[in-house]
Amino acid sequence: ETGVTQSPTHLIKTRGQQVTLRCSSQSGHNTVSWYQQALGQGPQFIFQYYREEENGRGNFPPRFSGLQFPNYSSELNVNALELDDSALYLCASSSPGEGYGYTFGSGTRLTVV
Amino acid sequence: ELKVEQNPLFLSMQEGKNYTIYCNYSTTSDRLYWYRQDPGKSLESLFVLLSNGAVKQEGRLMASLDTKARLSTLHITAAVHDLSATYFCAVDPRKLIWGLGTSLAVNP
Question: Helices H, strands E: what count in chain A?
C-alpha cells in the first residue's frame, strides 16, 4: 500500500469531548509526525513517533497524546477539546533512508463547537 | 528558537511573468523543504534541498538553498494559472518548522 491515509476526513465535536484521529503510514516508513494547521497558518509540529516511541514534541499540552503501532500506523488523541483545537490535523510519514522527505496524508478537519 | 520567515505572504501575478518567493530561517539547517497546498487540501512535496548550493527544478519551479545566508528561494518562471496555491517552506528534519506560507494567485 502506498501513500498516507487519514481518518476520518471531517469531524465535529463538542467542547470538552475527546477525539481520536488515525493515520496509516506509507509502506516502509517507520516515522510518523503529527501537525496542527489552523486556518490561514502554517502547520505546527505536535509530536513525532519512531518505532513506537515518542521522538520529539512541540509546544502542545499533555491533553494531546499519541500512539504508534507495530505496523507503524498511528493515532492522535485530544482530550478536553477546546474551541481553539479546531484545525486541520495532518500526519506525515517518513523514513531516514529517503533523504528525510515527508509524505503527508490528506488530513482530518476537526471542528469543535 | 528556530524561526522561518517567508516573503511575500501574498502574491498576485500575471500569467507569463516571473517571480521569486524567499524563505529565511534563523539558525543552521542543512535541509529545507518546499511544499504546495491547494485550498482545503493536504501538503504536496515539491523539493527537498539537502546541501548548500543545492538547486532543483521541476517544470516552471526552481528552488535553491544557501545555507550560509540561511536563505532559500523558489523561483517561478512564466507563471500559469495552475500554479495558484499556497507555498510553504520548512526546515529541520526531525520536527519541521514552517513558514506562514505564500499565497500565490496567478491571473490571466
Answer: 0, 11
